[in-house]
Amino acid sequence: MAPREKAELIFHAAAKILGLDPAALPVVHHLPEEFQVFPVVSFQLEVIRKALVSRRVADWNDRSEEKYGSWFLMNDPGFRFGDSRYGLTYSSGGSRLCTFSVDDQDFFAIECIALWADFCGGQLPAIKKAASTEEIEN
Fold first, then answer.
1. For residue 91, what pLDDT is reported?
2. Greatest CA separation for the chain
3. How big is the CA angle at 105 (ends 102 and 106), to the nearest 5 degrees?
4. I need a surface site. Which of 40, 42, 45, 59 has the fewest CB within 10 A?
5. Distance (Å) of CA 3 to CA 10, 62, 80, 133
6. Three-class secondary structure assignment of the chain
7. CA separation (Å) from 66 to 85, 98, 100, 102?
C-alpha cells in the first residue's frame, strides 16, 4: 500500500474513533493554492495523534511525564523518518503532536509519513516499482 493511502486509512480510522466525520476537513478554498495543504494536513495529524494517545493531554508542567516527538530527514533521496526522541525541543512536529511512548511516536511517524512530508514541506522518495517474476528470473 502506498504511503498516502496508508495515511488516509489511518486518518479515517482515527476520525471514527473520535466521532468525527473524516470528510469534514478544514475549509481552505479561499487561500492561495500553495497554502491550502498545511491546514488540512495539520488537522489530520492532530486527529490521528489524539486518537493514538486516547485523548490524553500533555502536562507541560510535569517533567516526569515522558513526551516523544519525531525527527525527519529532508535530503537525498527525499523526506523520510529519522528517529523518535524523548524531549520535544528536538521534534520537527512540535509539542502539539507529541505522544507518550516511543512506540506510539514511531508508528505515528512511519505509518503517516506522507502526512508528515506535507506538514514539513518535504517530498517522499520515489517508490520503485517491484520487479515482476519474469524480470527476476531473467
1. 44
2. 62
3. 85
4. 59
5. 11, 35, 11, 24
6. CCHHHHHHHHHHHHHHHCCCCCCCCCCCCCCCHHHCHHHHHHHHHHHHHHHHCCCCCCCCCCCCCCCEEEEEEEECCEEEEEEEEECHHHCCCCHHHCECCHHHHHHHHHHCHHHHHHHHCCCCCCCCCCCCHHHHHC
7. 10, 10, 6, 9
**What is the CB neighbour count within 10 angstroms for residue 90?**
11
- Mean of pLDDT over the chain: 87
pLDDT at residue 81, rounded to an integer: 83
Backbone phi and psi for residue 53, each to the nearest 5 degrees, phi listed first: -100, 15
**Alpha-carbon span 124 to 103, nearest angstrom:** 22
